[in-house]
Amino acid sequence: KPTLSLRDLHKGYNLGKPNEVRVLQGASLDVAPGEVVALVAPSGAGKSTLLHIAGLLDTPDQGEVVIAGEAMNGLSDRRRTGVRRGTVGFIYQFHHLLPEFTALENIMLPQLANGVARARTEAQAMALLSRVGVAERATHRPAALSGGEQQRVAFCRALANAPSLLLADEPTGNLDPETSERVFGALMDLVRDTGLAAVIATHNLELAAKMDRQVRLSGGVLEPA
Ligand code: ADP
Ligand code: ADP
């Protein structure tokens, strides 16, 4: 069964008011385990809205989100939060690392908050940092890292709880093209290693072409690109 099913999603803002915006108007998508889907969309098309709904940060007005066979509609907030923390990893365009903590600590903090033992979390975090080539920077704070290194640390943080679904919103969007390509390569290696299902939004058509499949968000619906 698909890791993620989005079924006929509708979402709008300020509905019924003069400033009404209809963003999603029947968007559907299935992502199989291990499948990496590129989401391409012009700015303002509703990419963030879609990713937030898929990642259980927001709810649709109509339609259904099904994660690993479990329908999310009608779940309690508590259960939704549980599924989000246990199943979904997020990567944003800006890394949102905490400046006062080291790279290693930034990766470990969500895990420690979830009650995972420190020794185990630390070993996992170091393994991830090694995998993306940032192990020697483990004890540096974000300000001492390059943009590409910061973003690779954010990838490690997103994958630290071994999610089955990765959602990324322009994961290399704030990096120069050369760094972007290298850092994206590190992300794809990680994703392929872990067999994650992923939806990765990008404006970069070269990067999109390296994924398994491309979908375009346009006019509120998703279609093959
Ligand atoms: P994208 O990520 O593709 O740029 P968004 O999902 O952020 O698109 O936004 C899609 C549309 O919905 C835009 O027109 C945006 O202005 C509007 N929008 C997004 N969030 C809100 C909100 N909270 N209230 C009103 N309008 C919103
Ligand atoms: P943008 O869509 O403008 O690039 P972000 O992707 O950084 O902005 O964040 C979009 C929204 O997601 C924000 O409104 C924020 O509240 C929410 N958000 C970001 N990170 C998290 C998180 N780790 N947990 C819950 N909500 C988050």
SSE order and pairing:
Blueprint (H helix, E strand, L loop, with lengths): L3 E10 L7 E11 L4 E5 L6 H8 L7 E6 L2 E2 L5 H11 E4 L11 H11 L4 H14 L15 H13 L5 E5 L7 H18 L2 E5 L3 H4 L4 E6 L2 E4 L1
Parallel strand pairs: 3-8, 3-9, 6-7, 7-8
Antiparallel strand pairs: 1-2, 1-4, 4-5, 9-10
List keywords for this structure.
AAA+_ATPase, alpha/beta, 225 residues, six-stranded mixed sheet
Please give a structural write-up.
With 225 residues, this protein is of the alpha/beta class. It is 35% helix and 26% strand. Strand 1 (4-13) and strand 2 form a beta hairpin. The longest helix is centred in the C-terminal third of the chain and has 18 residues, at 177-194. The chain is globular and about 50 Å long. The chain starts with a strand and ends with a strand. The model has no long low-confidence stretch (mean pLDDT 94). One adenosine-5'-diphosphate binds next to strand 2 and helix 1. One adenosine-5'-diphosphate binds at residues 48, 57, 90, 92-93, 169.
What portion of residues belong to β-strands?
A: 25-35%
Number of helices: 7
Q: What class would the helix/strand composition place it in?
A: alpha/beta
Order of helices and strands: EEEHEEHEHHHEHEHEE
What percent of the residues sit in helical stretches (DSSP H or I)? Answer: 25-40%
Please give the radius of gyration in angstroms: 17 Å
In total, the number of strands is 10
Ions, cofactors and other ligands present here are: adenosine-5'-diphosphate
Question: What is the approximate shape?
Answer: globular
Characterize the main sheet. Answer: 6 strands, mixed
Oligomer: single chain
**Largest sheet: spatial strand order:** 6-7-8-3-9-10
Task: Give the uncertain stretches in residue-range form.
Answer: none
- N→C terminal distance: 23 Å
pLDDT average, as an integer?
A: 94
